[in-house]
Design brief:
alpha+beta; Ribosomal Protein L9, domain 1; Ribosomal Protein L9, domain 2; 4-stranded mixed sheet; 9 strands
Length: about 150
């Protein structure tokens, strides 16, 4: 029996895949637990429409990410922190501080979870890089300098 999966199932398939399973597995487990629906003609048409809408939305999100990437390309951030005479920072620089610096410089609001630092915590003055993941296909590196106030 062919079914359309409504969620990812290990060793079977991913969401919206059409898979062939035994009748008993489909009727007794997948369909009652709302993990799948029967792949009849109506459900196939609904699935095609759903895929078309998802691809349109995905393309829109990707284009927005590309626009943000163009705006951030080649940008040099400067982050002022309090530091001791030896160059050690009081505290550390994290992704929240980088997101705030981007907002001040370019007026672009980024989620801190999209910013990934090479080091766990930056505790010294100097130049560093941060990777910003805007979309699964759109990533860029931003250079930033940590200097003493």
């Amino acid at each position: 029996m062919e079914v359309i999966l409504k969620q990812d199932i290990a060793n079977l398939g991913y969401t919206n895949d059409i898979v062939n399973v035994k009748d008993g597995y489909a009727r007794n487990y997948l369909i009652p637990n709302k993990m799948a629906i029967i792949a009849n003609e109506t459900n196939r048409k609904v699935l095609e429409e759903l895929k078309r809408q998802q691809s349109f939305k995905e393309e829109k999100v990707k284009n927005e990410a590309l626009e943000i990437a163009k705006a951030l390309e080649g940008m040099q951030l400067r982050i002022a922190v309090k530091a001791g005479t030896s160059g050690k920072i009081f505290g550390s620089v994290n992704s929240v501080m980088i997101a705030n610096a981007i907002k001040e410089a370019k007026n672009i609001e980024l989620d801190r979870k999209r910013i990934h630092l090479n080091e766990d915590a930056i505790k010294e003055l100097g130049n560093y890089k941060a990777k910003i993941k805007l979309h699964k296909e759109v990533q860029l590196d931003v250079d930033f300098e940590v200097f003493a106030e």
